[in-house]
């Protein structure tokens, strides 16, 4: 077999030889430089080149053994056998030097993207000079070092399916970007989707993907195979099959169990959004316990990101479902960032405790007022899953928390109400108003208040809330427009008049 490295790069040739378990010598040549790489059952066992810096004698000289290795024309194999026979080096010591030699040769030639190659399956080395090389790690490092334009050219189809390698071996040292991308690939996923999920620029993402493919951690659909010969298999003739059938009685064939149906991604998405809609704190958003450690929280977040990142559902772009998913995933990210930071997690736990005290205070007030039966009925509705009643209960709790100065607890309550009943303008408006109190969440507040105005355009107070937000954001013209709309609906709205008066000054 032979070809050009421009069509079949060396790293891909080695990947294929290793995967198919071939033995033999792979010879490569570029201009005046020649190198040969030996394999045994797919394992890379030795490599050398005609460059003086790549000869065994040079590495022996670096170890202070030059005077005992013979002249420069002595072959590496003969030199190695002489060192072992003379007791100059132990087997372990020789293997260490050979490994240095092979790694040095491979790091140089693996970057070749032009030149010629030939493979001879009959060429073998003696056991004297076979060493163990971390081929996967070499290929992974090669993928990192290759030119990005070259790696992009090796991944031309954005629709190509790529999936995790279920039989991946070796304990590789991964970069954070590589480890993160591996968590994003679950099942067969197109190249374009993986690039989108990576969060990186396309050239950077493709280089990471190509490196993981070379190392065998990912598998692709469209490898450009150089070797058409499949690994040897036992082939039985029809006569052999017939004789075997006569010698052994026929066994009843057990019917195969039908494969379990794959879960519908859209149904999983709906269930995910439904769960988020009733989550009232970050623990419920991620579906973890209050005692979950950072490692567990990270694992859960990465699983959610693999399954429900908005980019995975690009076919829903522009729909209400995709808008809900974007909002929901923002909550997931916020929950992850909060719970993986000790200080913000402690503050969030304090808010949960404050909210619990608000509920207990509200229940005590209801009992004192003789409204025990209604409170009991409300608790029953919460347990029974009446979403509308539960949303109203959360809204009232938020109002009480706001009166008591528990701003964060109020925001959590209004958030839960808005998620459970997204078409109720009152919940969206007050959730937006609570978010507007925090400079970090004012952009999210705008979306909630706009939703409230859209759901109930004749409510002057919602326009006023939006005008106040625009004023705080420094959008004077928008603030004036919303205040004018509020006055058009309610000419006696004093807050809208004050907003206009302030803006005129």
List strands and helices in order, with pairings.
Layout: E1 2-4, H1 10-20, E2 24-30, E3 33-40, E4 43-49, H2 56-62, H3 76-86, H4 91-109, E5 116-120, H5 135-145, H6 148-153, E6 161-164, H7 176-184, E7 189-190, H8 191-198, H9 202-214, E8 218-220, H10 238-247, H11 265-277, H12 282-286, H13 294-308, H14 320-339, H15 342-368, H16 372-384, H17 387-403, H18 407-420, H19 425-436, H20 442-455, H21 460-473, H22 476-489, H23 494-504
Written overview of the protein:
With 505 residues, the chain is α+β, with helices and mostly antiparallel strands. It has 23 helices and eight strands. Among the domains are: 132 residues, no CATH class; 77 residues, no CATH class; 70 residues, Tetratricopeptide repeat domain (Serine Threonine Protein Phosphatase 5, Tetratricopeptide repeat, Alpha Horseshoe). Helix content is 58%, strand content 8%. Strands 1-5-2-3-4 form a five-stranded antiparallel beta sheet. A three-stranded antiparallel beta sheet has the order 7-6-8. Helix 18 runs antiparallel to helix 19 and helix 22 runs antiparallel to helix 23. The longest helix is centred in the last third of the chain and has 27 residues. The termini are far apart. About 9% of the residues have low confidence.
